[in-house]
Amino acid sequence: MENIKNYINGNFHNPIQNHWIDNYNPSNGEVYGQIPNSSKEDVEQAYKSAKSAFPSWSQTSIEERSRILIKISELLEANLDRFAKAESKDNGKPISLAKAVDIPRAASNFRFFGNAITQFASESHESINQAINYTLRQPIGVVGCISPWNLPLYLFTWKIAPAIAAGNCVVAKPSEVTPMTAYLLGKICNEAGLPKGVLNIVHGLGGSTGQAIIEHENIKAISFTGGTATGAHIAKVAAPMFKKLSLELGGKNPNIIFADCDYDDMLNTTVRSSFANQGQICLCGSRIFVEASIYEKFKKDFVNKVKALKVGHPSEVSTNIGALVSKPHLEKVKEYINIAKAENGIILCGGNQVTVAGFENGYYLEPTVIEVPNDDCRVNQEEIFGPVVTIMPFHNEDEVLQMANKVKYGLSATLWTNNLKRTMKMSNQLQAGIVWVNTWMMRDLRTPFGGVKASGIGREGGFEALRFFTEAKNVCIKY
Ligand code: NDP
Questions:
Q1: Which residues constitute the catalytic centre (predicted)?
Q2: Catalytic residues, which ones?
């Protein structure tokens, strides 16, 4: 059994009440360890540890903070195989993906913010009436970071790295479904020389452990990535306490394909943007709109490519689609396939659970393409967050813009066209925080990241993240 402990004040602790939760391996459905079911008391202990580390960490030189963050990054890179295996076992994603994307990106997050903090500056304004204003950017104190299960270490570190780079101390909770790499990160932080208490990781359920973080009166900012309903709940709890909030929530992203695109590039990327990580990426293009003149050709080519994807055990090199993260999530996704059928959607391929020999109790599902009769149906409006995409034709820019913007979400959009005017017009009018043109999930960590509408508030990435994790204080001096 691989058991996990809370990481508080640089040490590993059992939960105070000694309550535990089973941790499942999605590839075979077996329990392979236990994790703390932390209570309010554990969160309080983590908070006290963070608080005691705060003033000194915030006064540690920028060079020293930067050095430690970059050291964490190097240690993650040196432990790539171990972390990739652990991530894959915990989440069900192919090891190849964890090795190529999740763990390198987690390392990049520390390296990027270790460097970014050395370049972070604030403004000064000289006023005409013999005064100068300058703005201080001060760390907030103890902040909370809460992350989801789909890109466990990648998204966990995307919050933690800027928080500590900016001089804050952190109480963090990974998803209880995928806690393993966050646990391993604690050991790396010690090895890198991160002072005790700067980062504290408490494991447990959202409704109790997570709740204790968001309602803690002295945890002054919450950076959260997860579902829209949870985000709304957090906003309700945090708003009366005037906490700073960054909410990165769900998506139902349009992938809009015009006939004048580079077809082969579009086709290959669309397979990826539909099914990477079993479709469990908030940025996946789950609603595919195709210009009518190439619709039938696209449908045939796309379905052929999707049918060729191999569903298999995450450790096999040939696997394209691993296991979904949990049994309840598998059931939720299957239920949406039933809803699609009831709404007269046509299942063009997939739609069934897969039994992988030797791992019969794993949570495997065929990549599924559904042709939908209209864009109002539930599978086109609600986030499924699995290996399921819908396709339908469109006839002109205005029609597809209207359909693309009709959902409650607004995280990202992908556009495939070589027409410059159309690119400019549609990029302006798409309701999304991120628009990709002729590419997907191409990330530059300096750019603002986040969504509009029910996809959240605030932006992560680059100096936006450092601004979130600091308070601006203006000083005006008359001379
Ligand atoms: P959830 O909202 O269920 O959970 C996210 C995190 O919040 C988990 O750690 C969870 O703990 C915790 N949590 C749940 N309830 C509370 C609470 N009351 N107080 C504090 N914390 C709480 O999301 P999922 O983990 O299911 O992740 C999938 C969702 O995340 C999808 O909607 C997806 O679109 C979104 N997402 C958004 C991204 C973005 O950048 N916009 C990126 C990636 C995912 P526990 O696991 O124990 O319930």
A1: 248
A2: 248
- Tell me the per-residue pLDDT of 394-408, one tens digit each, with 9 for 90 and over: 999 999 999 999 999
Residue nearest to atom 23 of ligand 1 (CA): 226
pLDDT, one tens digit per residue, over 192-237 is 999 999 999 999 999 999 999 999 999 999 999 999 999 999 999 9
Of the residues 102, 175, 202, which should be mutated to test ligand 1's pocket, given the most ligand atoms within 8 Å of the CB?
175
Domain that holds residue 350: 254-444
In a domain, 100, yes or no: yes
Into how many domains does the chain fold? 2
Cβ(175) to ligand 1 under 6 A? yes
378 alpha carbon – ligand 1 mean position (Å): 21
* Helix residue ranges per DSSP H, 369-468: 378-381, 397-404, 420-429, 462-468
Ligand 1 centroid, distance to 479 Cα (angstroms) = 51
226 vs 324: CA distance, rounded Å: 17
- Domain match, 439 and 334 both: yes
Question: Which ligand 1 atom sits nearest the alpha carbon of residue 207?
Answer: 18
Domain for residue 408, yes or no? yes
Answer yes or no: is 367 within a domain: yes
